[in-house]
Design brief:
The chain is an alpha/beta fold and 139 residues long. The chain has one domain: Rossmann fold (3-Layer(aba) Sandwich). The chain is built from seven helices and five strands, in the order E-H-H-E-H-H-E-H-E-H-E-H. The two termini are 16 Å apart.
Length: 139
């Protein structure tokens, strides 16, 4: 399943245990193919550098080179730049990236995205919803 991971999902997947561990496992098993754009990568790196996460530059570099770049597919074609989330325009990068390839899902826990999901041009799933779908495909 092609996906775009919102930043909150990426951070939880890489740094914390819990439900998002299943997302990480699905990426490593090839059941999820996360898509990436340069603006999304910049957003990931910006958030990983937040002081509250207490990551060193070396740890961020490790996450980038070992956990993101090998597993995420960089979108090289033009990405639309339409506005979708007026409350947080930075979320538009995720919506627009998911629009580039058919059947791409946006995985998010962001309130702005989840509140707008019925009017967005891409399917939006929570972590629980994507894990439920993956579980059903194994049955």
């Amino acid at each position: 399943m092609r996906t775009v991971l919102d930043t909150n999902v990426l951070v939880s997947t890489l740094l914390f245990r819990g439900r998002t561990t299943g997302v990480h496992r699905a990426i490593l098993e090839g059941r999820l193919l996360p898509l990436l754009t340069e603006p999304i990568l910049r957003e990931y790196l910006r958030v990983l550098a937040y002081p509250k996460l207490q990551l060193t530059e070396l740890e961020i570099t490790y996450l980038l080179n070992e956990e993101i770049r090998p597993w995420f597919h960089m979108i090289n074609e033009p990405v639309p730049t339409e506005s979708w989330i007026s409350e947080d325009p930075s979320d538009d990068h995720f919506v627009n990236a998911a629009r580039v390839r058919p059947d791409t899902h946006l995985i998010s826990g962001d309130r702005h995205i989840l509140d707008a999901r019925t009017r967005l041009p891409v399917p939006v799933l929570t972590v629980r919803e994507v894990l439920d779908r993956l579980e059903k495909t194994l049955e």
